[in-house]
Amino acid sequence: MMEKTMDIFQKRKITYTLIFLSLILIFCGASLVTQFHLAEGIQSFPAALHWIFSNLIPDETAMERLPKILDKLVETALLSVAVTVLAGICAFFFSLLGSGITKIHWSINRLVRIVAAFFRNVPDVVWAMLLMFSFGQNILTGFFALFFTTFGLLTRAFIETIDEVSSNCVEALEATGGRFIHVVFQGILPSSLPGVITWVLYMIETNIRSSTLIGILTATGIGYLFDLYYKRLDFSSASLVVLSIVVLVLVIEGVSNKIRKVIL
Questions:
Q1: What 3-state DSSP class applies to 59?
Q2: What pLDDT score does 85 carry?
Q3: Fewer CB under 10 Å: which end of the chain, C or N?
């Protein structure tokens, strides 16, 4: 018995050693191909930190621009909330057709999953670049770019959330003569609501970060200000924009965590 135990531990040790050596070889090979030098990267840290503390500290001029930055920050946050809420509502009803628990025809179920996968796997930046040809550089382009990606992600997440609902509740409602709408609003929605709200809150946080990059492309929101200051080499103002985004995301995350504690 002891010998078998020792053999198991010895095999695990050999396996972990081989995995570790393989990772090192992969790193060395990738470094050679990309001409990356770890030692030079580490040596450049002091100079990088010196540049950061010399150029990325908000000065008096940057602080004078704070009201304008906050105005664009609020605009970006409201856009993210509006996109997520609308996409969440649409995704929930669409996910009902893709969930197995609602017993929709398999062809519709499959089609819904394919559509969700398509919207989910196309990045929001790509959507923004494609939509700019139709709508130009404006807030509507950013709205639809975020909406399509959010819709795909939430549809997939809601399908899994709904599939976790107890089938006994649905079967009980159907046995008492409940129609599809009764099953949805009296069985599925109450049971899956905590998970749905959690996903919506998570996507609000994600969209605030994504909308910054979208804003650079569409010349709207906080992303536009960052791009403007960065191209002017006004790094102190650009750093204030970044700090304001970080603070907003932390505040949203804190509020989201409190809401999750209440509903879960």
A1: coil
A2: 92
A3: N
